[in-house]
Write a structure and sequence with these properties.
mainly alpha, two-stranded antiparallel sheet
Amino acid sequence: MSARDLHEKLGVKQPVTMWAQYRIKQAMLAEGQDFVSFSEKSEKGGRPLTGYYFTLDAAKHIAMLERTEVGKAIRQYFIDIEKAAAEGAQENARLKSAMEDAQAALLEGLTAKVKALTPAAELGNAVTKGRTEWPVNMAAKELGVPRPVLTWVMRKSGFMS
């Protein structure tokens, strides 16, 4: 960004070359990294003037240092952006924590269900493999139904042949 354009947009009263040199020193900018300087002919003749082009980051630094209404507005803009980013980060952390809590509760519930159903699954596997009638008797007793009823339901459902 041209130092002249930045100077104009910030509403600075000081001459542009003096202002640019002062701000370069104040912002501790490095030539070739943050800005470049060049010689240009003066509009009024005489000796050449030094012009400057700033990187966008350097222009932001300078704009935030400026003690004008525009400089103040720029500082406030960056403060507002930083606050919004911090609020967003806090909300993300809150949502992440809530999601982790929900996942832990779900996992705990599923683990309890698996533990509760494991004996029934083992019994069902023993019955469907047709090892003996004893597991059917045991299942009927556990379920509180007569063995012939359980056998009929299991055959009808395809669990027994």
